[in-house]
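Quick one:
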Amino acid sequence: MSNAAAPGAWSRIFLPFALGYYLSYLLRTVNAVISPALTGELELSAAQLGLLTSMYFFAFGLAQIPVGIALDRYGPRRVESALLLLAALGAALFAQGDSIGSLGLGRALIGLGVSACLMGALKGFALWYPPERQSSMTGYVMACGAMGALTASAPLEAMIPLLGWRGVFWGIAAVALAASASLFFSLPRETAAGGNVRLAGIVQGVAGIFAAPAFLRFAGSSLFFVGGFMALQSLWAVPWLMHVEGLELAAAARILLVLNLGMLTGQLSIGMFGVRLVRLGVQPLRLLQVGYACLLLVLAAILFRVGPVVVVWFLFGVLSAVNSQSYLAAANNFPREMFGRVSTSINLMVFLGAFLVQWGIGLVLDLLRSWGWAMPEALKFALAVLLLLQAFSYLPLLGWRAGKSGN
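Output:
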């Protein structure tokens, strides 16, 4: 099929992808609201809770390079619909889990199952939409991810007393099955493009990306800015709001809703004004430099409790939208034909960072609590460490002129 939009493309193509990415982001952030119930019912330590929740990021990150290869060879219809069956299985296992092992397995299967939801959509838009529409379609689908994060805040908190967290995951399993069926039966059929590319050549090419200075300059910020935001949004924001700000769970969930509304606002703003900014000479790297400088200030405001809680967390969400520019800023330093491999390599760093930060915060909290620290002070110390890591990872972005490299 040519890349002219197919008849009925909105319902046949966009909506199935939108449902998949909505589900992916909902599952990414759902543990933030159910964490008090999980901790109370299963008597989890902070490190266990962090490790359990971060298994999503661990499995998701490990899948990125194989998923990118599979999408190019077999197309998004088959790859994403098959993986979403694993997400449904993982949600069902999580709903029945009664130990850290069974819950961790379910969480890992969920991460693996939704690992193609964004990249599959981007691949599908490239296949079935004309080039001039792909930027706007990407903005819209990422906004649907923000809607998933919104659902996993105050609305989900309101459902837990009715369904329980296990009932919520049974419902998610049903939605994942529906999303899988929608993708498989609704998307246009694509031709497999296996070719004669040898696996050794593919692996060597990816290894070259990770060794390139142009990639390494963005690796640290991907780890600690993008991954750090995910770790806070998907788990540690709620404990911070409850223990440091003294809010009840319902109030903390509302602040999480505000954070996600800010993220939606920022993503839609970049989608609407991104083309105009490029025409004015504002490149992705410049957006990262300005956005990350502002993010450092906002995170410092959160740490030192400067300003109204609602405003500061909303700004944190708005500014997080610049995270999406990491893919473009890094890829602009490589030949155009390497875009897919570079962007999935950045995505691997992002989810590795989310895994390490989310689990690492839990380890720090347990260690400091064992030394007699109160939870609010332990959380402040952990956030201060993250802020320092972000500041150091920001330095390589300064004074770096983006220029394409064949390395």
